[in-house]
C-alpha cells in the first residue's frame, strides 16, 4: 500500500479502536468486522464488500508492528502540515499545497507515488531525491503485491489431531483467468514505457532542486498496456469465488492460524499474490480431551477394579489399547501410556493420559447390597479407616 494512502486513511477509525490499542484489541475488532462483512455471508452486497476490503487493509498494517510504526510516523509527519509554513496538496486528502519560494505548489500524491508503491522506497529516499541528495537514480516502479486474506474453518477433534485435507471456498480478488494476471488482452503483452524506460518516474530540475515525479505516460507503473484485457480492464485481477484444497497438518490446536503462501489476494498486473491465513476452530469431543501434545481420557471404573486391579480397554486415536490398573489404585489417578497421544510437529506422538474415576451405583439392592454390607463390616474389623488423619484432630 502506498504511503499516500496511509495519510488519507484512518485505519484506527476503520476498526473502531483507539490509536494506542493493543494488538489483541486490534485483532479482536478486525476479526469481528471481517466476519460480519465476509463476502460469503453478504453475496452481492457492495457495501459489505468495501467494508471487508477496508478492514483487511487496516488489519494488515496495524497488526504488523513494523508497518504500524511506519504508519503512525507517516501520519504524524503530514497530518499537522509538519514542514514549517509549507502547504500540501493531497489530491482530496485535505492538505493544502506545499509552496516553494516562487509560489509553486507541489502535490502530495505525486511525492508519495514517487517514493514507490511497494514499500521499496521510504520517505528518506523521497526527500533525498527532492533536495538533490547524492543524485540518486529513481527506483523502478514495481507492481504491488496482493493483500493477505483471512478466513476461518471448523474441524472435529479427530480431524484436528489426525490432520485432514479439505476444500475451502473463498470469494476474493484473484488473478484474472483470461489474461493470467498480466492485464493485457490474450495474445498481447504490456510493453516498457518509452518515456521513463520502465522506471515509473521521471526526473526534472527546478532551479536548485531536483525532482522525481511519476511518469504521466504510464502513471508510475513502468509499463503500458495498449490492449487491456476485456474481463479485468487491465488490472490483472478479478473478484471471483474459488475453491482451494487445504491440507490441515496433524496436531493443529483450537485458535491456531495456518499460513498458505500465495493464496491471498492477487497482486495487480502480475505481481505476487498475498498469503491466506486460516484460523482453525476445533469442536470439543465427548470422549477425548487434550493437554498440549498429550491426549486425555477419563475412564469410569468400579471400586473393586481399583482395589483388586484390572486391565482396561481404552480408546485412542488409532483404535483401542489395554491399560493395566495396579492393585490398590486410588480414585482419580492418572495412568500414562507412552506414544499414544497427539502427533507432534517435530515427529512422534505425545502420550495418552488415562484418568480412572469410580462410578458409584445409584441403586444397590439384593445380593450386591448384602455383599457390600458384609464387606463394610470386614473392612471396619481390619482397622481400615478411610478418614484417618483427615482434617487433623478436628
Describe the 3D structure.
- This protein has 394 residues and is of the alpha+beta class.
- Among the domains are: 98 residues, Urease metallochaperone UreE, N-terminal domain (HSP40/DNAj peptide-binding domain, Sandwich); 78 residues, HSP40/DNAj peptide-binding domain (Sandwich), CATH 2.60.260.20.
- The chain contains ten helices and 17 strands.
- A hairpin with a 5-residue loop joins strand 1 and strand 2.
- The longest helix is centred in the N-terminal third of the chain and has 17 residues.
- The protein is elongated and about 110 Å long.
Q: Which strands sit side by side, in order, in the main sheet? A: 12-13-17-16
Order of helices and strands: HHHHHEEHHEHEEEEEEEEEEHEEEEH
Largest sheet: 4 strands, mixed
Helix content: 25-40%
Question: So, the CATH homologous superfamily of one domain?
Answer: Urease metallochaperone UreE, N-terminal domain
**Structural class estimated from helices and strands:** alpha+beta
CATH topology of one domain: HSP40/DNAj peptide-binding domain
Keywords: Chaperone, Cytoplasm, DNA replication, Metal-binding, Repeat, Stress response, Zinc, Zinc-finger
Family: Belongs to the DnaJ family.
Subcellular location: Cytoplasm
GO biological process, one term: protein refolding
Amino acid at each position: 500500500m502506498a504511503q499516500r494512502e496511509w495519510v488519507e486513511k484512518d485505519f484506527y477509525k476503520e476498526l473502531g479502536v483507539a490509536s494506542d490499542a493493543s494488538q489483541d484489541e486490534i485483532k479482536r475488532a478486525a476479526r469481528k468486522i471481517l466476519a460480519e462483512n465476509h463476502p460469503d455471508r453478504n453475496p452481492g452486497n457492495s457495501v459489505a464488500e468495501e467494508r471487508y476490503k477496508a478492514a483487511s487493509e487496516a488489519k494488515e498494517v496495524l497488526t504488523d508492528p513494523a508497518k504500524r510504526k511506519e504508519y503512525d510516523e507517516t501520519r504524524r509527519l503530514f497530518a499537522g502540515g509538519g514542514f514549517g509554513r509549507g502547504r500540501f496538496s493531497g489530491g482530496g486528502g485535505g492538505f493544502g499545497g506545499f509552496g516553494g519560494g516562487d509560489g509553486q505548489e507541489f502535490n502530495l500524491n505525486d511525492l508519495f507515488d514517487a517514493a514507490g508503491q511497494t514499500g521499496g522506497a521510504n520517505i528518506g529516499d523521497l526527500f533525498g531525491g527532492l533536495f538533490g541528495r547524492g543524485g540518486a537514480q529513481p527506483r523502478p516502479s514495481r507492481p504491488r503485491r496482493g493483500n493477505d486474506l483471512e478466513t476461518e474453518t471448523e474441524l472435529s477433534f479427530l480431524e484436528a489431531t489426525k490432520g485432514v485435507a479439505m476444500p475451502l471456498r473463498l470469494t476474493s480478488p484473484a488473478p484474472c483467468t483470461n489474461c493470467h494476471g498480466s492485464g493485457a488482452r490474450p495474445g498481447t503483452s504490456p510493453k516498457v514505457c518509452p518515456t521513463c524506460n520502465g522506471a515509473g518516474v521521471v526526473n526534472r530540475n527546478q532551479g536548485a532542486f531536483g525532482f522525481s515525479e511519476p511518469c504521466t505516460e504510464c502513471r508510475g507503473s513502468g509499463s503500458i498496456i495498449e490492449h487491456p484485457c476485456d474481463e479485468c480492464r487491465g488490472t490483472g485481477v478479478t473478484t471471483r469465488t474459488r475453491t482451494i484444497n487445504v491440507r490441515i497438518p496433524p496436531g493443529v490446536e483450537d485458535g491456531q492460524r495456518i499460513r498458505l503462501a500465495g493464496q491471498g489476494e492477487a497482486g495487480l498486473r502480475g505481481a505476487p499474490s498475498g498469503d491466506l491465513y486460516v484460523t482453525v476452530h476445533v469442536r470439543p469431543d465427548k470422549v477425548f480431551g487434550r493437554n498440549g501434545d498429550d491426549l486425555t481420557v477419563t475412564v469410569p471404573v468400579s471400586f473393586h477394579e481399583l482395589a483388586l486391579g484390572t486391565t482396561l480397554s481404552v480408546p485412542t486415536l488409532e483404535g483401542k489399547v489395554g491399560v493395566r490398573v495396579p492393585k490398590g489404585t486410588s480414585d482419580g489417578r492418572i495412568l500414562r501410556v507412552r506414544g499414544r497421544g497427539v502427533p507432534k510437529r517435530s515427529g512422534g506422538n505425545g502420550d495418552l493420559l488415562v484418568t480412572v474415576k469410580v462410578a458409584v451405583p445409584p441403586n444397590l439392592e439384593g445380593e450386591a447390597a448384602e455383599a457390600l454390607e458384609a464387606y463394610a463390616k470386614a473392612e471396619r474389623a481390619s482397622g481400615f479407616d478411610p478418614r484417618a488423619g483427615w482434617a487433623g484432630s478436628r
